[in-house]
Structures are given as C-alpha cells and as structure tokens.
Design goal:
This protein is of the alpha+beta class and 184 residues long. It has 4 helices and 7 strands, in the order αααβββββαββ. Helices cover 31% and strands 23% of the residues. β1 and β2 form a beta hairpin. It is elongated, with a radius of gyration of 29 Å.
Amino acid sequence: MPKILSLAFLSLILAACHNGPASPEPDQLFQERNQNPRENNIEAHRRFLKQEIESIKAYIEERDLDLQRNGTGIHYAIDGEKAQGPVAQSGDLVSYSYEISMLNGSILYESKAEKPAQLLIDRQDAEIGLHDALKLMRVGDKGFFILPSHRAFGVAGDQNKVPPFTALVYKLEVLEIQNQNQQK
C-alpha cells in the first residue's frame, strides 16, 4: 500500500509539472505590461504639456489678451508707460509688488502695499519664471505674465497653495531696482 501511495503521489507531482499550453515567462509578462516605462513617462509628459499649452491658449483667447511669448513658453505684456531706467539684470535687487493666481482666477498670493517683495535676480531661490519676468522690466513697469508650470513651481507645486504642475498668472510692478554689482 505505501508503494501505491508513493506512486500516486509521484504521478500527481509529474502531472502538475506537465506544461499545458505554452505560458509566457515572468520576464516576458513584465515586459508586455510595462513595454517601456521611460517611453510611457515621456508620452504622458507630452500629453500634459499639450494640455497645458491648450489651457493657456484658451485663457488668452477668452480674455482677448495681446501677449508676447518668449522662448521658454512665458506669455507676457508689459505696460511701460511710467517706466524709467534700465531693465533689471542678474545680480540686481528688485523690489516689486505682485499678485499670483491660477488660470481659473483663484488668487493664491499677493504682496502687501506696505511691504513689497524683494528678489536678488538669479541669486535667490524663487520661481525661474519670476526671475525671467523681472529681467524684462524697468522701474515703473507693470507686467502681466503667464508662466507654464515648468517656469513656475513645477512638479511639486509650492507645498502650500500652488498645486503640482500648475500654470500661473503673475501681475507684477517693479518699484525699485538696486544694482548690486556696482555696490561692491
């Protein structure tokens, strides 16, 4: 009887090991499910950029804005009616007032009249697009800027009010420019 049980058990093991229809190897399954994760990420990013560009264009069209666009994707208009002096440059300390909102009109941040913001151009941590915008302006200029997410707070947002991957609208006025390069 023990021999019969042993043979039956051995037969079960052999039957379980029999390959039925060819099944794909685990590596092959992984590759099929995740064809090329890098390509998938690139394609997702392209779709996002296309959507963001369309959202910005729609915002501009809905408001009938006459804006210029620079090479980094920033759309802007500057009212230089009261402007004086040279544009801000790298290393300058710029005092400015601001209002930052989302494309849906929600105001996220704004400066206080009694306490303007200051930024040391290209030397202080801030949104890349803000540095770019201020370098287009002179004292007295009022500017309107739409920063795509990659020039604003990018992938992470600001960890407070600005969500990740958000294009922003900046209204800026340059109040003072101090040339720090000549003060050394």
